[in-house]
């Protein structure tokens, strides 16, 4: 479903991604972990061309983007259609109700039939447990509810891949669970997902593969069991120790 | 003393009352016929110009940025009255003759366009980057993003400063008197020229301007309430 080869990204002199290679099968959930500044968010944003990679190729759902060549706006937009993004700060449209947020993609952009799209949007709201919030504005919702609307808005685009950029990092601790549950359900339904997160329990419970990134490279990868219980690399061990330390403070 | 003489002279008091009564209608007529249309038309055209200018300023195309900057700089850097005089009295010398009302509309629109463009530019820049990104990821084009996401939010932020612009404009239309538009202030001048009751006539005009502006500030409050629907307090 996803095939990434030699992905590079520099911001001026600073090289943030130093050659990422990754293949993701359809229906897999990949969790990317790593210290801040490791490039994991940049990596995710490159898959949606929110950041334009400096070099390399990414194939998603059969469409290839070659970043060694300039891309037209049209090409970028076509490539973006393959995936949908869920943001750390939700980025819902504050002047639209939850339902209208979800409808914006299918109706305004994809020009789908409004009645049909509305049916689907309501079904998505039900799926994320918010059927009663269709007419609420984002500011009337809790962070967890906003993020679930964010997920529904992304799903409404019917993407082949869902990208999650630290979806629970901005949430109060007691609201994290409801968002992770929705994501777990999605993973179980066979959605292909790439998730950047600090939630190790989600990684352990829902990931098919865990990537540990540091300094713009994938340092270690494997099943959650392998990465968390038998890390091979020194840097991975150090990172996991640090996280576990904070758990016991 | 003027006041003394009014109150010690019932005849004069009566005369003032008569003049006030008879000049009220012509003043209101001039306001409805010229002051308000001039304000509204110039504001709408100016707003359109302001959005275009603001977009040019934030675009990545150098030449557009540059044109917008020069335009704003010229309009803000020269007096409105001078601009009106150039349009109405200056241009005919190079063969371009414009009637008073259209000349005023052009002058005021250009003025609003320049000032409001800065308001709108600031409002657009105040919308978080995440909104542009969210629009990008759901596949919106630049114009869809502007129309559906950015401008609706920016307009909420712009209501108070744009109300300022509009209220200033209503008062500035009195300058059109000097390029022969028979708006309210000019009518006040014309009436005063026949009866020499300057204080009365200009006072009446001032009162009508104030009432118009007061009503506009009420409208501003309504607009703010409406836009605040989706903002937490």
- The proportion of residues forming helix of chain B, as a percent range, comes to over 70%
Beta-strand residue fraction of chain B: under 5%
* Rg of chain A, Å, rounded: 18 Å
Number of strands of chain A: 10
Topology:
The complex is a heterodimer of chains A (249) and B (233).
Chain A: E1 2-11, E2 14-24, E3 29-33, H1 40-47, E4 55-60, E5 63-66, H2 73-80, E6 83-86, H3 98-109, H4 114-127, H5 143-155, E7 161-165, H6 173-188, E8 192-196, H7 200-206, E9 209-214, E10 217-222, H8 224-229, H9 234-248
Parallel strand pairs in A: 3-8, 3-9, 6-7, 7-8
Antiparallel strand pairs in A: 1-2, 1-4, 4-5, 9-10
Helix pairs in contact in A: 3-4, 3-5, 4-5, 5-6
Chain B: H1 2-7, H2 10-58, H3 62-77, H4 80-90, H5 100-125, H6 129-137, H7 142-172, H8 184-195, H9 198-227
Helix pairs in contact in B: 2-3, 2-5, 2-8, 2-9, 3-5, 4-5, 5-7, 6-7, 7-9, 8-9
Could you describe the 3D structure shown?
The complex is a heterodimer of chains A (249) and B (233). In chain A, strand 1 and strand 2 form a beta hairpin. The longest helix of chain A is centred in the last third of the chain and has 16 residues, at 173-188. Chain A has helices spanning 40-47, 73-80, 98-109, 114-127, 143-155, 173-188, 200-206, 224-229, 234-248; strands at 2-11, 14-24, 29-33, 55-60, 63-66, 83-86, 161-165, 192-196, 209-214, 217-222. The model of chain A has no long low-confidence stretch (mean pLDDT 93). Helix content of chain A is 40%, strand content 25%. A 6-stranded mixed β-sheet of chain A has the order 6-7-8-3-9-10, with helices on both faces. Chain A is globular. Chain A is an alpha/beta fold and 249 residues long. With 233 residues, chain B is an all-alpha fold. Chain B contains 9 helices and no strands. In chain B, helix 6 packs across helix 7. Chain B is elongated, with a radius of gyration of 22 Å. The termini of chain B are far apart. The model of chain B has no long low-confidence stretch (mean pLDDT 93). The chains are: A alpha/beta (249), B mainly alpha (233). The A-B interface holds A 48, 50, 77, 80-81, 84-85, 87, 89, 91-96, 104-105, 108-110, 137-140, 153-154, 157 and B 128, 130-131, 133-134, 136-141, 144, 148-149, 152-153, 156, 229-232.
């Amino acid at each position: 479903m996803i095939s990434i080869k030699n992905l590079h990204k520099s911001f001026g002199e600073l090289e943030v991604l130093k050659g990422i290679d990754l293949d993701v099968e359809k229906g897999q959930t990949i969790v990317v972990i790593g210290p801040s500044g490791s490039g994991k968010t940049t990596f995710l944003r490159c898959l949606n061309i929110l950041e334009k990679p400096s070099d390399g190729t990414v194939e998603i759902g059969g469409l290839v983007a070659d970043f060694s060549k300039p891309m037209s706006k049209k090409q970028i937009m076509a490539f973006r259609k393959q995936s949908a993004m869920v943001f750390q700060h939700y980025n819902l449209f504050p002047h639209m109700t939850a339902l209208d947020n979800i409808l914006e993609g299918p109706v305004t952009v994809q020009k789908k039939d409004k009645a049909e799209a509305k049916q689907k949007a309501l079904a998505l709201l039900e799926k994320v447990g918010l059927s009663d919030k269709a007419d609420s504005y984002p500011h009337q919702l809790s962070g967890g509810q906003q993020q679930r609307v964010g997920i529904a808005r992304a799903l409404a685009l019917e993407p082949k891949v869902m990208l999650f950029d630290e979806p629970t990092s901005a949430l109060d601790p007691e609201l994290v669970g409801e968002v992770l549950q929705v994501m777990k359900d999605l993973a179980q339904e066979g959605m292909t997902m790439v998730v950047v997160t600090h939630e190790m329990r989600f990684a352990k419970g829902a990931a098919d593969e865990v990537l540990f990134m540091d300094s713009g490279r994938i340092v270690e990868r494997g099943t959650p069991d392998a990465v968390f219980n038998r890390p091979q690399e020194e840097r991975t061990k150090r990172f996991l120790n640090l996280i576990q330390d904070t758990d016991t403070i | 003393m003027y006041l003394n003489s009014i109150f010690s002279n019932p005849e004069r008091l009566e005369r003032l009352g008569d003049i006030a009564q008879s000049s009220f209608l012509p003043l209101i007529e001039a306001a409805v016929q010229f002051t308000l249309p001039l304000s509204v038309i110039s504001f709408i055209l100016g707003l359109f110009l302001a959005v275009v200018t603001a977009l040019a300023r934030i675009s990545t195309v150098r030449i557009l940025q540059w044109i917008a900057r020069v335009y704003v700089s010229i309009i803000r850097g020269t007096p409105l009255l001078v601009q009106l005089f150039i349009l109405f009295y200056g241009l005919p010398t190079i063969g371009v003759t414009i009637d008073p009302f259209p000349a005023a509309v052009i002058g005021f629109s250009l003025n609003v366009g320049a000032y409001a463009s800065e308001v709108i530019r600031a409002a657009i820049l105040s919308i978080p980057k995440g909104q542009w990104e969210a629009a990008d990821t759901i596949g919106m084009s630049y114009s869809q993003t502007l129309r559906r996401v950015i401008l609706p939010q920016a307009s909420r932020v712009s209501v108070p400063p744009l109300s300022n612009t509009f209220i200033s404009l209503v008062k500035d239309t009195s300058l059109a008197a000097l390029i022969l538009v028979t708006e309210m202030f000019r009518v006040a001048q014309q009436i005063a020229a026949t009866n020499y009751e300057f204080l009365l006539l200009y006072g009446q005009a001032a009162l009508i301007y104030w009432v118009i502006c007061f009503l506009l500030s009420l409208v501003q409050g309504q607009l703010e309430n409406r836009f605040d629907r989706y903002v937490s307090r």
